[in-house]
SRR1L protein (Indicator maculatus), 219 residues
Amino acid sequence: AGAVRARLGGSAEPPARCVCYGLGRFGGCPIARDQLAFLLLLLEELGVPPARCSLFDPVFSEQEAAVLGELGLRLLPENEEGKHDVEGSATLFFMVHCGNALYNNLLWRNWSLGALPKLVIIGNSFRGIEERLLPRILRRDYSYIAKVLKVTEEVALPTHPQYLDTFNDTSIHWFPLEKLQELSPEVWDFVEEPTYEDCDNLEIIRREDKAHGCSPITA
């Protein structure tokens, strides 16, 4: 948590709130429980009140939802599919081990010079996503990740031997305005909403999907 704070210390605007996607069934999954514990420590370290942290995972049980409420955290009322507008507030997105589509949707929803600099994402390494996918697949299915890659600042979360499975391939990402301004105007003109019609392995629970068992995001 201190490493995250140190990385964000030079930001013009530190995060004022937090959104967490895909935490999973922490009532029965030790990895999800460790991620929740880290999230709570991170909020404390960054000075973000729990009431300003919103969570969503369609697999949360009623008991887990009640526990999150007891911890002072808020549940988002509906499945946003990652399409959360920062609405002018610097926001930390805690999205460890989420599907690529969630990151892509988040970037699309905030695709502007005014909004992207207000995002900080703790989640799967964008560089790792680029390495694992063929360039044409990355551009076709996750075009917003592909377009922002070369101007993304990314630092790997420090590793710890006890939590290798919990935070493997996890990085801190942010998008400096001065770098975003280097992109061509055409990049900002295309803001079509992603559809993923040709995507074979989406790794996202849609609004219309029913959640059963373990979260595929966490798995």
The longest helix spans residues 30-46. The chain has one domain: 17-208. The mean pLDDT is 89.
